[in-house]
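User: Mind token order:
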Amino acid sequence: MQLSDTYWISGTGGMAGTICPRIVLMSFMCLVLVSTATIGDEIREKPNNTTHDGPIQVILDSDSRMVEIGDEILLKGIIDKSLIGGAPSDVVILISAPEGSLADTFILSSPDQHGKFSYKLPADVGGTWGFEALYNGVNSPKIMVDAVPSTKAGKTTLTLSGWPAYPRVGDEVVFKGRLTDSSGKGVPNREIGYQSESSGKKLGSNESGPDNSNWDVLGFGQTDQMGEYNFKIPVVQDGAINVRVLFNGDGQYTPSESKIISLIVKNP
């Protein structure tokens, strides 16, 4: 809103020519104050993840709001181009897992040039899972996914996490996970095998497969009474490395495979 450069004054006295512009100016200032207060209220009412016009800048969703224990939860999202600028950085997906889960509290997902990203993780226990995406300080609305007992008897789920995610040569990477049944309970005293895949460079070994991309057996472990396991692997060379864990199954439980953990190893 702008004041006109010309004022039309009614009346004949000089006083009228002085008072009327003041009245117009005072009226304008009142309108400005009211408008400013209204805009301020609107901004305070908007959540942090929206622009001033209202659209959500970071969106996260799941392909299903209900899964069976042991199934994968597929998360998909998109980032508004106004937040990306140049090359997109990683999206942080915050995870609120039900009690008893060994899922990480957050994971990283790399968006493509259009801002789209996705991630899969197994629902290792039953209950309500919560997810929220964070990009450059902007959060998505939180979504909820319910994990219910599986109808398939003997179905198993195998989780895996590793730290640090960006190790250096000479470090030891600590891996842990859990083998669970269709109800989310741990499966004890079962053998699991862990493997690596890389382009001729592996964890704990200088050997590689004949085609430089085979999965190589690194060792075996056993789940404890809670179905949990852990192992450590030394890093001997740099490069990109993938690690996974397998359960071959038996007469009571079905085979299962963990997600693949990707590590980027750097020289000290």
In short: Confidence is low (pLDDT under 50) at residues 1-53, 200-212. The longest helix spans residues 14-45. Residues 88 and 112 are 7 Å apart (CA to CA).
